[in-house]
């Protein structure tokens, strides 16, 4: 038995704007720091490293702080801020031992979030954070 499918094409009605600021951690040419669609900024993953791609010395608190500062810088370039984050995903290498330590620093963002334990993160960092934030006009 053959069935026919009525396929309709999808057309974007909104445009997406890519965000880049030299004040934040640089990304490889195939990536973007963030993108804006409608009234939201969608942040790429951020880890706790320097602009030279060296891990911030110290434990998970220092890496969390560095990742949040990078996120803050990119959000500012996009017209938003940490206080406008509506959803964050946090990936941790050792969630069992380091969740409380990360949370001490993360509380400055006060955003809805989920945390997931993972086996590997870039540069073997302890944490990676990505988020969606609202742009207020």
TrEMBL record:
Matches recorded under Gene3D superfamilies: RutC-like (3.30.1330.40)
Gene Ontology CC annotations of this record: cytosol; mitochondrion
Entry's Gene Ontology molecular function annotations: deaminase activity
Family: Belongs to the RutC family.
PANTHER family: 2-IMINOBUTANOATE/2-IMINOPROPANOATE DEAMINASE RIDA, MMF1
Protein's UniProt name: Endoribonuclease L-PSP
Organism name: Gymnopilus junonius
């Amino acid at each position: 038995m053959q069935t026919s499918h009525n396929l309709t094409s999808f057309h974007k009605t909104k445009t997406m704007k890519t965000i880049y600021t030299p004040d934040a951690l640089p990304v490889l040419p195939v990536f973007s720091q963030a993108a804006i669609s409608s009234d939201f900024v969608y942040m790429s993953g951020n880890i706790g490293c320097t602009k030279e791609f060296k891990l911030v010395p110290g434990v998970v608190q220092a890496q969390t702080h560095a990742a949040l500062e990078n996120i803050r810088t990119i959000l500012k370039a996009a017209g938003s801020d940490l206080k406008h984050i509506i959803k964050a995903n946090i990936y941790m290498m050792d969630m069992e031992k380091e969740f409380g330590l990360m949370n001490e620093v993360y509380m400055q963002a006060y955003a809805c979030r989920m945390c997931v334990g993972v086996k590997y993160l870039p540069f073997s960092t302890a944490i990676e954070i990505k988020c969606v934030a609202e742009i207020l006009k």
